[in-house]
Design a protein that fits this description.
Blueprint lengths: L2 H31 L1 H8 L1 H4 L9 H15 L3 E5 L8 E5 L4 E4 L6 E4 L2 H15 L6 H28 L15 H15 L1 H12 L4 H8 L20 H6 L6 E6 L7 E7 L11 E7 L4 E6 L5 H6 L2 H5 L5 H11 L2 H22 L3
Antiparallel strand pairs: 1-2, 1-5, 2-3, 3-4, 5-6, 6-7, 7-8
Helix pairs in contact: 1-5, 1-6, 1-13, 1-14, 6-8, 7-14
Length: 357
């Protein structure tokens, strides 16, 4: 069997199977792109503050310290203002999530149905809500979509139109349904090849991040940069919390699950600006307030710096509003390719039955 026929068979059968999972992931991902704006619009009493621009980081940190003192051992996680959330939220060990005014710590309310919807949507996007193996189903399907469906599709397109490339981008809008369906499949496939390739490659990272980092380690210099550890012996939890870094803003605190666990402080360079590179810092402190580890984008290995950009690239935020619009549209392309491709398959099958070889 000729290589071209083998590639077409791969494109067909892998597309019909794994293409469906990729389509579901694409739609759920597209829906999640506008989560910040929709959540803020539906929950202004929980997520927004009128005077947020006039508040400094010291105010947020002081409120976070006060809330920690008040709720002490019942806290699992605390999230400070970041992206659409201008308030402070606390996830408790009993599973509840409450929101508080980031200036004075006043209770604002519990998690709303719309916020929970987007939390569940993200879980569905990453795992299809299948326990334990769900992330491997989506991650593997994404890799197959990347390596077999997209690459075989571009190969077929190039072999067909390599002498007249412009014809590969044409859609005859007034042609018969079969021809229009075929044109739509080929044009959408080649036009969104790069965006879909990028989204698939970065999406699989969240399942197979250890393998990605191992591969990216070839970018690292043999000289390992030493991370500077600040505040090695703080006098209290509040001292760690209030220890400000002008380069970063504290966005989340993960509290110890037990006496052997650590506090984890996650920092971000920009609270509300989403365009550009994602620069972060993470500090781990033991329950007896000893610094366990510190990673900082400024001094991190090249592989980790690159890996930290997979999320903003995957959701388009690295390119601002244009990138998010592109990812949103691209999210609906796999299901369109799946439907048009399946119609092409059915059309050929009916023709084979009508005119057997």
């Amino acid at each position: 069997m000729a290589l071209g026929n083998i590639v077409r068979k791969i494109h067909l059968w892998v597309g019909i199977t794994c293409g469906l999972v990729a389509s579901i992931s694409g739609i759920s991902g597209a829906m999640y792109v506008w989560q910040p704006e929709i959540s803020a619009a539906l929950n202004p009493e929980l997520l927004t503050m009128k005077n947020i621009d006039s508040l400094e980081d010291a105010v947020f940190l002081k409120t976070a310290s006060s809330l920690t003192t008040t709720h002490s051992d019942s806290i699992s996680k605390m999230f400070l203002p970041y992206r659409e959330q201008q308030t402070i939220s606390i996830e408790y060990k009993n599973g509840k999530t409450n929101y508080y005014n980031s200036e004075n710590g006043q209770f604002l309310g519990e998690n709303s149905a719309s916020i929970v919807f987007f939390e569940d949507l993200l879980k569905f996007h990453r795992t299809l809500l299948i326990p334990k193996i769900g992330k491997y189903v989506t991650g593997t399907s994404t890799i197959i979509f990347l390596l077999l469906i997209l690459l075989s599709g571009i190969y077929i397109w190039y072999k067909t139109y390599n002498t007249t490339l412009k014809n590969g981008f044409k859609i005859k809008w007034k042609s018969k349904k079969k021809k229009f369906n075929f044109d739509l499949h080929k044009v959408l496939g080649v036009s969104f090849f790069i965006p879909l390739l990028t989204i698939s490659f970065t999406g699989a990272y969240f399942t197979y991040n250890s393998y990605y980092k191992k591969a990216l380690s070839v970018l690292d210099s043999k000289t390992i940069l030493k991370q500077e550890t600040q505040n090695k012996n703080p006098s209290s939890f509040a001292a760690v919390l209030l220890d400000s870094d002008k380069s970063y803003h504290l966005r989340a605190i993960y509290y110890p699950k037990d006496a052997n666990d650590n506090y984890r402080f996650r920092y971000i360079e920009s609270r509300f600006k989403t365009q550009g590179l994602r620069k972060t810092k993470e500090l781990a402190v033991s329950t007896n307030l000893k610094t366990v580890s510190l990673t900082d984008y400024r001094n991190d290995a090249t592989s980790n710096r690159v890996a930290s950009q997979f999320y903003p690239v995957h959701i388009g935020e690295i390119a601002g509003i244009f990138g998010r619009i592109l990812v949103f549209i691209a999210g609906f392309i796999p299901i369109t390719l799946y439907i048009t491709g399946f119609r092409i398959y059915l059309s050929k099958k009916r023709r084979t039955r009508k005119f057997p070889a």
